[in-house]
Amino acid sequence: MAAFFRSLFRLPAPHPVLLENRELFRDFDQGRPLGEYTFVVCDTELTGLNRRRDEIISIGAVRLRDLQIVPGETFHRYIRPRNTDPNQATLIHRITPEQLRDAPSIEDVLPDFVRFCGDALLVGHFVAIDMHFLNRAARRVLGGTLSNPGIDTMRLARAYKEARCRDYYGYCDQSMSYNLDDLSREFHLPRFKPHDALEDALQTAYLFLFLLKKFRHGGIRTLKELYRSGRTLDRIF
């Protein structure tokens, strides 16, 4: 049946790296302490936000182990787009057309990124956007989607800030910003250059570690508890 649908929708057979990825999460356990997981904090730079037309032009990632950034274990690649004029990216990302014309294709980069991630959980700021474009590329290039669970720092920041506001003021200002740069400034975190995939991944990593420290102080110890935190933060901060 699977082969029939692949033929019907012209999907490639699963790439070996994707089969390995699936096997790593076959018996995934959400009940372990947070410190026992490896995380890969990632960011993608895109030609735009059209979910059907635009493409990934850069992937940046940094690894966390024992709730610390692992020095030297980073991933950063430029990617040559298939169908989009590379000049469009220059205005936002400061990536030159020459960098993209000489860059490898997504077919070359994506398997390396999946191997870099290994059994890590993927963390991103509004991670759904990154995962949409990564999985859209993975379906075409690898024959399926990634199995790595995702964690959204924007969602965690919203839960943390709303719980704190209700605790102190009894209500929450819905106009609060959850922009990555604004949150980093508010929480006095180290600052990195925006609109660069690796720098944004590092910025997100510092935000994630800051929030995990707050959540663990509030009694959240396991990944399952972190996923449920949006329903429990009123009672723990």
Detailed description of the structure:
The structure is a single chain. With 237 residues, this protein is of the alpha/beta class. It has one domain (2-236): 2-Layer Sandwich (Nucleotidyltransferase, domain 5). It contains 11 helices and 5 strands. A 5-stranded mixed beta sheet has the order 3-2-1-4-5, sandwiched between helices. Helix 7 (153-169) crosses helix 9 (197-217) and helix 8 (180-186) packs across helix 9. The protein starts with a helix and ends with a helix.
What share of the residues does DSSP label as strand, in percent? 15-25%
Looking at the structure, the CATH topology is Nucleotidyltransferase, domain 5
What's the CATH C level? Alpha Beta
Distance N to C terminus = 50 Å
Overall morphology: globular
What's the number of domains? 1
Rounded to an integer in angstroms, the radius of gyration calculated over CA atoms is 19 Å
Q: How confident is the prediction overall: mean pLDDT?
A: 87
Uncertain ranges: 231-237
Major sheet details: 5 strands, mixed
- What is the second-level CATH architecture? 2-Layer Sandwich
CATH superfamily: Ribonuclease H-like superfamily/Ribonuclease H
Strand order within the widest beta sheet: 3-2-1-4-5
Task: Determine the number of helices (DSSP H or I, runs of at least 4 residues).
Answer: 11
Q: How many beta strands in the DSSP annotation? A: 5
What is the share of helical residues?
A: 40-55%
- Which class of secondary structure composition applies to the elements? alpha/beta
SSE pattern: HHEEEHHHEHEHHHHH
